[in-house]
Structures are given as structure tokens and as C-alpha cells.
Amino acid sequence: MHCEVNGSRTQPEFTHQVVLLVFSLPTICIGLVLNGVALYIICCKIKKRTKSIIYMANLVFSDIFLLFSLPFKVYAYYVREEWRQTLGKVFCQFLESLCFVNTYASILLITMICLDRYMAIKYPFVVRAISTPMKTTLICAGIWICVCSGSIYIYFASHSESCFYNLSSNVLKMEFIGTLEILFLICAFFMIFCSVQIIHSLKVPASETQSRWADKSAKIVLSNLLTFLVCFTPYHTGLLLYSLAINDILLQSYCDHLRSALHFCLYLANVNCCLDAIYYFYGIKELCQSNSSSRQTPNSSIQMGNCETLVDPSTGPPLNSQVTLNFTPILLP
Q1: What's the rounded Cα separation, in Å, for the pair 188 and 191?
Q2: DSSP H/E element including 29
Q3: DSSP state of 92
Q4: pLDDT above 50 (res 314)
Q5: Residue range 158-168: mean pLDDT, rounded
Q6: What is the predicted pLDDT for the residue at 92?
Q7: Mean pLDDT of the chain
Q8: Hey, how many other C-beta atoms are within 10 angstroms of the C-beta on 121?
Q9: How far apart are the C-alpha atoms of 262 and 292, rounded to whole Å?
Q10: How far apart, in whole angstroms, are the C-alpha atoms of residue 253 and residue 4?
């Protein structure tokens, strides 16, 4: 139940190492700076712990887990067989588990954020009545429990002889991979459905100023959807095909090529941790601008409504549905 590979192919080729370096170094440097600053702002500068802030903080931690593992991954690829003496098999399995945590924690958190924005637009009074920061915290805790359970499975099932490069056939059993594929398809469906509905809701007749905000919000929602699909769809396609080859459903002669393609798709998925941070800062910028406007005209119910909606649509009084529609999606990470 494993691919037979030639000895010359059991270690990453030079071209593969170069591609790894080209993708990983910018991801590590940019990701650490952006996520570090975002985490500082969220934890130290924003006092009110709303639903949006809770989701964003969890997403930042998820990305940091990946960024922690990437330098060791680059090192393992370059030292080749010496990783056993320097990193150790146990530590390598731990790092592989961290990569899994980031990928699926990010997918689930991004999906929940998008679903929350959709509910806030379509059913604002219901969301305001039943949704609270405490419940959001419990949802995030449930996500972490699920992905950490998967990581524990990977940790104990992995018996790879090549750190990060040749995934263990025990990890790639179709029962496990099939569950991951179904999970991703469900998340992708909700992302597409909710994003389309949000964009459709933003196309309501409005004043010129509100129309500009609606267009900007729609572009953010669409960008978020495209980022999600571009980063994670190739990876899950490659993972499924490689698992089929590992389990003798596809010809094993495809294994080497599918393995390389899977790793290239994984590098693309890793870029998501940098793109997430861009959305954080856009949302924080809008939050600061909204707070600044509300301080200048403290008696303006519309401006206060904008600020409330931006921070957390369920906590602000949705007295002006037009304002709610225009500002709700801004914080989509």
C-alpha cells in the first residue's frame, strides 16, 4: 500500500528545493511581520472582544503555527538524509502535524467568518439575539479540538523515512483523506454560496456614497472567495490524486509526479497565511476610520451604526439596513 520509488527520487530534487525556497522565504518573512503586527493590534490595541476580533485572533494563531514549521521544513529539504540526526523523527512528525493544523483551522475559520457575515446580512435580528462572543469562542474551541484531533492522528500514524517529503502511507488512507476532501467541499460550498449572496445583497439601490462602499465591500468579498479557492483547491485536488496512487487506485507510475505536484500545491496553500494578514489590516483600518468618525460626531446614530456593524454586525442596532449591508463584509479576512 505504498508507491515504489527509485532511490534517486526518495529525496527532493534540486529544482524542487529551489521552488521551495522561492515560495517559503517570502512567505516566512512577510507572514511573520504581518501576522505579528496584526496579533499585537488585536491583543493590545483593540479592547472590545467582538465576534470578528475573536475569529481574527484565532486565524492569526493558526497562521503562526504554519510559519513556525516552515523554516524547519526548508532545513529538512536541504540537509536531506541528515535531518534524522539534527531534527529527529519525533520533532519532524510534530512539525508535519502543525502544517495540518494550519491548513484546516484556516479553512474552517474562514468559512465560519463568511457564514457569520452572511447570517448578519440576511437575518440581522436573529443573529443579534442568538449570537454572542462567548458562543463564537466555543465555536473556535470546537474547531481547534477537531483539527488537533486530526493532528494527533497524523503524529502517531506517520512513519515517513523522509521528513516532509514522502508522506507516510498510513496517513494517506482513503478513509482519512476522503473525510478531509468532504470537509473541504462542504466549506467551499458555503464559501461560494454565502459570498454570492452577500455580493447580491450589496447590489441594492443606494446613494452614490453608499454605492461606492458597496462596490468596495463586494470586491473584498470576491477577493476573499477567490483567495480561498485558489489557495486550497489545487492542494486538495493534488492530495486526492496522490492518495489514489498510494492506495493502488491509480497507477503507481504516477506517484513521483503527483508527489511533486502535491508539494507545489501545498506551497501555494501556504501563501494564504500572508493574504489573511492583508485582510486583517484592511478591516482594522476601516475600524479605526469608523471610530474616528464616530468621535467627531458622537450623536450621529448612522456613524455609530457603521462602527458597530464593522466591528460586529450582531451587536450593533440594525436600524438602517442599507448601512448594515454596506459595511458588514468589510472584515472578511
Answers
A1: 5
A2: helix 14-40
A3: H
A4: no
A5: 69
A6: 79
A7: 76
A8: 22
A9: 47
A10: 8
Distance, CA of 122 to CA of 138 (rounded, Å) = 23
Q: Do you know the residue count of the chain?
A: 333
Pair 66, 99: CB distance under 8 Å: yes
Answer for the pair 318, 125: CB distance below 8 angstroms, yes or no: yes
Q: Which position has the higher pLDDT, 168 or 21?
A: 21
- Among the residues of 158-271, which ranges form H helices? 174-201, 208-246, 255-270
pLDDT in tens, 4-25: 444 444 455 667 778 888 888 8
Sorted by sequence, the CB contacts under 8 Å of residue 103 that are 6+ apart come out as 66, 232, 235, 269
Ranking 166-175, 176-185, 237-246 by mean pLDDT, the lowest is 166-175
C-alpha cell of 268? 501555494
Query: Would you say 56 and 39 are in contact if contact means Cβ atoms under 8 Å apart?
Result: no
| Opening angle at CA 196, ends 191 and 198, nearest 5 | 95
Q: What is the DSSP letter of 235?
A: H
Taking the C-alpha atoms of residue 37 and residue 153, their distance in angstroms, rounded to an integer, is 33
State the angle between helix axes of 272-296 and 14-40 in degrees (0 to 180), rounded to the nearest 10: 20
| CA–CA dist 226, 1 (Å, integer) | 36
pLDDT in tens, 251-299: 777 777 888 888 888 888 988 888 887 667 766 666 666 555 555 544 4
Can you tell me the mean pLDDT for 70-88? Answer: 74
Q: What is the 3 state secondary structure string of 242-284?
A: HHHHHCCCCCHHHHHHHHHHHHHHHHHHHCHHHHHHHHHHHHH
Only one residue has cell 501556504, namely 270
Which residue in this structure is represented by grid cell 481547534?
Answer: 144
pTM given for the model: 0.81
Residue 203 contacts by C-beta under 8 Å, 6 or more apart in sequence? 214, 218
Residue type, 169: S
- Torsion (CA) 275, 280, 281, 286 in degrees, nearest 10: 130
Closest CA relative to residue 115, chosen from 56, 22, 193, 26: 193
Distance CA 216, CA 75 (A): 41
